[in-house]
Amino acid sequence: MDSPIMAPPSPLLDAAMAILADGKPRSADEILAEGQRRGLFDPCQTRKHIYTALSQYAQ
Fold first, then answer.
1. Burial of 16 (0-12, 13-18, 19+ CB in 10 A)
2. Contacts of residue 10, Cβ cutoff 8 Å, sequence gap at least 6
């Protein structure tokens, strides 16, 4: 039995998943704003970083 391919751990993805855990849909801008409010993202994080990380995770 083959083991599933796992993405490397990412603090950015972990933070985004924590924000999305309530099941409410959010845009990358909303995820960024909520993550900044909670102190989950580094100040250098951008909407593009979040969008790219989530898009690659979904693929």
1. buried
2. 53
Interior/surface letters 41-58, b for 16+ CB within 10 angstroms, e for the rest? beeebeeebbbebbeeee
Overall pTM surpassing 0.90 (yes/no)? no
Rounded Cα distance between 44 and 29, Å, is 14
Query: Per-residue pLDDT tens for 23-57?
Result: 999 999 999 999 999 999 988 999 999 999 999 88
57: CB partners within 8 A, 6+ apart: 7, 13
Amino acid identity of 47?
Answer: R
